[in-house]
Amino acid sequence: MNALVKVIAAVATGFLFAGTVGAQTLPGSGKTIRYAQDDSLGGNYVVAQITSQALKKLGYDVRLSTMDTTLFFQAVAQGDMDLATDVTLPQREPGFRAIAQQATVVGDGMIIGGGINGYLVDRKTALAHNITNLEQMKDPKIAGLFGRDGKAEMISCDPAWSCGVVVDYQLDKFGLKQTVSPVRGKYEALMADVITKVQNGKPAFYYAWSPSWMTNALKPGTDVVWLPTPQDALPPNIPNRGTALVNGVVGCAGGANPCRMAMGSWNYDTVANKAFLAANPAVKALIEQIRFPLATWSEWEGVISKDGGSVSVVKKLSDAWIASNQSQFDQWVATASKAH
């Protein structure tokens, strides 16, 4: 009887030890990741949830916070935040350069092929007045269609966003300051008015990007059209990653292909604290694998714009993606767990 008890005790101890070792082999065991997401809601929130789930599979405790990218840059440089997966580059390049000694870009961006951004007008007005490029806004008669007294009102970016700097620079560079007045405020609220205008058949002129909820609420080629810019032009401190000419842009005014956008393709890039990354090679290996097709982003953005960006909607989208792509998700985790 004593011998049997000893055997059972030994087996139990063995299982306990094995479980402890198994837990210890997870690269994130006992570690917390301070993960930031931008305060601009979109498919990036779904990606944050998917990435968080993968990090948890690696053993990490994930603390997700929402903050403006400018604040994130300060926090990650100081070591108060570890990473974010939705830093828009090259738009945020100047801010990133200021912290490049403390932080680094990981991977090739979360959008396969990158995203686009530029200027749009409602399709009805564009067709009625043959508006096929941004330069036509120099004409007070054309500009006045989108405002009054020969001057257009164009919805620009939220004051906290870097894209407004690009817009202001280009309006000056393209000779449009006399006929185009950029309006900056809470972007979501301003765009809600734009959507109502277009739905009521009224002229609208604004700056936007894709993938985003705006290009799902107002579809290029159906409701609105992209206006090609006359030339590549970016502020000196914002690098142009290749030409602004983009092939296959759906809804480019006049059917132009390639379509010259406001800048070359952009992406949601991951920025992480260098010291954190060096101590967590599994995180680096994971992030380097995670990317999603533009069509997937557009689907997420469409659902969010229709059903709202509540926590439950975002979680439903992330859970659905994982369930439909379980083998890929598991492969990401398995590969990352082997990183040293």
Describe the structure.
With 340 residues, the protein is an alpha/beta fold. The protein has two domains: 31-113 and 267-337, Periplasmic binding protein-like II (D-Maltodextrin-Binding Protein, domain 2, 3-Layer(aba) Sandwich); 116-260, D-Maltodextrin-Binding Protein, domain 2 (3-Layer(aba) Sandwich), CATH 3.40.190.100. Helices cover 43% and strands 18% of the residues. The protein has 14 helices and 13 strands. It has helices at residues 2-25, 43-57, 69-78, 93-97, 123-128, 140-143, 163-173, 187-199, 214-217, 274-279, 281-287, 294-307, 311-324, 326-337; strands at residues 32-37, 61-66, 83-89, 103-106, 116-122, 147-148, 151-155, 180-183, 205-210, 224-227, 245-246, 259-260, 267-273. The strands form four sheets. A five-stranded mixed β-sheet has the order 2-1-3-13-4, with helices on both faces. A three-stranded antiparallel β-sheet has the order 9-5-10. Strand 7, helix 7 (163-173) and strand 8 form a beta-alpha-beta unit. Helix 2 (43-57) crosses helix 13 (311-324) and helix 11 packs antiparallel against helix 14. The longest helix is centred in the first third of the chain and has 24 residues, at 2-25. The radius of gyration is 24 Å and the shape is elongated. The two termini are 47 Å apart. The model is unreliable at 1-23 (pLDDT under 50). This is Glycine betaine/L-proline ABC transporter substrate-binding protein ProX. It comes from Paraburkholderia youngii. Residues 39-321 form the ABC-type glycine betaine transport system substrate-binding domain.
